[in-house]
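User: Please fill in residues for this 141-position structure.
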C-alpha cells in the first residue's frame, strides 16, 4: 500500500527519487569547492548551503549532515529527532506515526540508499549541537 503524501513533503520525495543524481552532483560539487578553497572565506557558503539544502531536502542546517548516508533524506526532519533509523512506530504504509500525512524519513532513506547503492549499516554520529547552523559543506573539503 502506498501512502498519498501531502504536497508539502513533495520536495523530500523528489530528492529520494533523484538520489543518485544528487549524490553524484554533490561529490562533483565538493571537488569543485576543494579547487577553490583559497577563496572560500570570501564566499557566503553557509547562506548558499542553507538555501540550496533547504529547498531540496527541507534541511534544518544541523551542521552534522549525513544526507550521503541516508539516501538524501534528512533525518533531522524526523519529529522525534532520530538519526539512526526508524523509531519502530512507522505505520504500515510507510508514514510517520507522529505526523500522519508525512512519510517516515527513514523509509525514504532506505529507498534513497537503494538508488545510490549506499550501505546503511553503520551508526550515525550523535548530533553535535555546537555545529547547528554551520556549514557541513566546508567540513567535507
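Assistant: Residues filled in for all 141 positions:
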Amino acid at each position: 500500500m502506498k501512502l498519498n503524501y501531502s504536497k508539502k513533503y513533495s520536495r523530500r520525495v523528489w530528492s529520494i527519487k533523484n538520489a543518485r543524481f544528487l549524490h553524484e552532483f554533490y561529490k562533483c560539487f565538493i571537488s569543485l569547492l576543494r579547487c577553490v578553497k583559497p577563496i572560500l572565506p570570501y564566499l557566503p557558503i553557509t547562506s548558499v548551503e542553507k538555501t540550496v539544502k533547504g529547498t531540496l531536502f527541507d534541511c534544518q542546517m544541523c551542521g552534522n549532515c549525513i544526507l550521503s548516508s541516508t539516501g538524501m533524506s534528512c533525518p533531522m526532519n524526523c519529529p522525534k529527532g532520530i538519526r539512526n533509523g526508524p523509531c519502530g512506530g512507522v505505520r504500515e504504509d510507510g508514514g510517520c506515526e507522529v505526523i500522519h500525512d508525512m512519510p517516515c524519513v527513514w523509509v525514504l532513506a532506505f529507498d534513497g540508499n537503494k538508488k545510490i547503492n549506499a550501505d546503511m549499516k553503520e551508526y550515525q554520529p550523535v548530533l553535535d549541537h555546537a555545529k547547528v547552523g554551520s556549514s557541513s559543506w566546508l567540513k567535507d573539503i
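For context: Residues 20 and 47 are 25 Å apart (CA to CA).
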